[in-house]
Structures are given as structure tokens and as C-alpha cells.
Amino acid sequence: MGPHLFVPPGFVPPMSLIHECFVLEPLGPQHNEADHAAWTSSIDHIRATPGFPDGEWPPREGMSLEDNLADLRRHAADFVSGKGFTFTVLDPLDHEVVGCVYLYPPEGEGDVIVQSWVRSERADLDEPLADAVAAWLAAEWPWKKADRCGR
User: Fold this and answer.
1) What is the pTM of this model?
2) Fold classification of 17-142 (topology level)
3) Coarse DSSP helix, strand, coil percentages of the chain, rounded to the nearest 5 percent
4) Residue 138 reports pLDDT greater than 80
5) Of 84, 116, 85, which is closest to residue 19 (Cα–Cα)?
6) What is the tally of helices (H) and strands (E) in the chain?
């Protein structure tokens, strides 16, 4: 991989991660209402999660469904172009959105910055999700040095 490439040419990203406690699938516009409900119900919990201490996201005042949809469209476009990969985290039984995983190029050292959050009422999944994603990255993704944001 060259210094300007996030993934090697021709790399086909995994489209899911199946775990007994959650399922990951690419985040897209179809998740708008459920994604919006998930993060807006858990702003303080997300802001306290490793990887989100910058005080910018999620916005305390929330955002409109239309703005959230634009954000989801941007993440979906990044996925298609290979600029970044965002996954929604779903409950395996009822498919409720319980969180999100972001895989984006780091600004500093490393190959990828990994951020994840779950809704406050599913806080028990924070560590299992982060650990499962780390194992998934090691097994199926091209990066060698992941910044797991303190996890």
C-alpha cells in the first residue's frame, strides 16, 4: 500500500461480522431512523467512550433526521470508494441498531483508526464489540497497525 492508499487496489472489504451478541453490516441510508434514535438516546455514554473524547461528536444538541441521512450517505460513499468503512451494529435477534463502528485513515501513526460506540442501555457490549472488531481486523483486513483509541 502506498502512503496515500487506505486499502490496497482490488481489496474487497468484508461486508459483515457475525458475533453471538451483534451483527455488523455496512451503514447506509436505510439505517437513518434507527441510527438516529440509537445515538441520540446515548449522547453522554458515547462521549464517554474511548475514541470520542473530542467534545464534537455526537453533538449535544443532536441533529435533524435530514442531516443524519446526509451523514449516512457520506459514510456509504466512503465505503464504496474505499476512503473509510462504517458499519452499523445490530442486535442479532431483532436487528435493532445498537451501535456503530468506524474504520478510517489515521491522522497520525498507524494504518487505521478504529472507533466504536453502543447505546447506553447496551453498554455491556462496548468491550466485546471492540475486541471482536480488533480480531476481525487482524484476520480479514489489510492493516497491521490499528489505533484502537485506547482500547
Assistant:
1) 0.93
2) Aminopeptidase (3.40.630)
3) 35, 20, 45
4) yes
5) 116
6) 4, 6
